Amino acid sequence: MKQSFRALALFAGALALQSSQAATQTKGEAEVDYRQSLYTVIAGNFHPLGAMAEGKMPFNAADAKLRAERIAFLVPMLKEAFPADSNGVGHTSAKPEIWTDTAGFDKALQLLIDKSAALAVAANSGDADKVKAAVQDTGKACKNCHDKFRVKD
Amino acid sequence: MKQSFRALALFAGALALQSSQAATQTKGEAEVDYRQSLYTVIAGNFHPLGAMAEGKMPFNAADAKLRAERIAFLVPMLKEAFPADSNGVGHTSAKPEIWTDTAGFDKALQLLIDKSAALAVAANSGDADKVKAAVQDTGKACKNCHDKFRVKD
After folding, report:
1. pTM above the 0.95 mark?
2. Cβ-contact B30, B81 below 8 angstroms
3. Which end of chain B has a smaller Cβ tally under 10 Å, C or N?
């Protein structure tokens, strides 16, 4: 048992040293890194859906279903991704209003959660037109939150 | 309909401009960014399980279940996260052996997928000892792959 714990401790150390940057991260920096990583994974799965909806990629029902399920799973994880001590830390585009207008932010995020869930339902139907409409609704919910709570590039 | 597509195009543009860095990313760099982000989200959810298994955090059955379900969902996504043109791109710790010893890498990744699935089953039982053992098994499967296929820090 002791040896197993040692293996785990080694593993935990290996994780912490995933990059030399990670080793020197503060708690707030690690939180921002986690949040931005979560958005990157969401965006990476939304891109093919956007391309299908825009006709830049042929509609693929199986891939649309897989991507939409991932988005519906990942988006609610954003609810934990804005802890107070990540406000204003590092290279972030997160506006302070996220933490001052919490009701407004929660509403905008809930809209995205709802639209993402509807996207997964649409994708499960295999109907290309329903998927397109749901992708557009989800994209608008992203943009709605970005317009209010994200610094413009 | 045209207006909807316009909103989507605007949204796609907003995503591409998530950071000024993203705007200048090559395809390979974006793939490395996606992969590292996926690992960051997996690690962020594994950390509390590791802390519970090591007794650094009290065992919380509901949180363990949530984290383990996320890990079991996210880990299989790693199968797509090593496209050939991401080999050797940017600040990566991924060894070239990932792309030369594909059978070995696939085996190491499959072990992690299997252990992550078993972790979710263990966490669903609510039994702290089963969770601890499964966390250790998952940690060893991480380390097994890192030892062979990740550059040491």
Report:
1. no
2. no
3. N
